[in-house]
Design goal:
- With 147 residues, the chain is an alpha/beta fold.
- Helices cover 18% and strands 15% of the residues.
- The chain contains four helices and six strands, in the order H-E-H-E-H-E-E-E-H-E.
- The chain has helices spanning 53-56, 76-82, 91-97, 128-136, and strands at residues 71-75, 88-89, 106-110, 120-123, 125-126, 140-143.
- The strands form two sheets. A three-stranded parallel beta sheet has the order 1-3-5.
């Protein structure tokens, strides 16, 4: 039977510095200052009072990245391979087939490859070649409304 006072700790105890013993008065912390105190926290960008690099460098320009519109691109040859004749192609249908993955984006159909079947395609954008290829094969093109 185990008794509480006979149990051995599972891990190694950390060395508690600055509690007397052989390390002397400063206990390996140097002399005074923020890093000699208990619980020091100095952020990584702090440079000892010197003007930090991030503030010394000039800030210039403008980024339009937050307003970027990104499209999921699908080619005509992909539609040929994955869909049957006369199918209605939407973003949901492309997700079910595993062609489109990831977060919701806008859909753009490009004209790479030759179209051998007719489809009804719902997308946010079409290239001119893709649009004309779909219509020439007897299919229909539907532009999704802006969100």
């Amino acid at each position: 039977m185990s008794v509480l006072h006979t149990l051995v700790p599972a891990g190694k105890k950390r060395k508690r510095i600055g509690r007397g013993g052989s390390r002397g008065g400063t206990a390996g912390f140097g002399h005074k200052g923020q890093k000699a105190r208990s619980g020091p926290h100095i952020r990584p960008s702090f440079e000892g009072g010197q003007m930090p690099l991030t503030r010394r460098l000039p800030k210039r320009g403008f980024s339009n990245a937050p307003f970027k519109v990104s499209y999921e691109i699908v080619n005509l040859k992909t539609l040929n391979n994955f869909f049957e004749e006369g199918a209605t192609i939407t973003m949901e249908a492309l997700r079910e087939k595993g062609i489109v993955k990831g977060p919701v984006k806008l859909l753009k159909i490009l004209g790479e490859g030759t179209l051998e079947k007719h489809f009804v395609v719902h997308a946010d954008k079409f290239s001119k070649t893709a649009e004309s290829a779909i219509i020439n094969k007897g299919g229909r093109v539907h532009l999704n409304k802006e969100k």
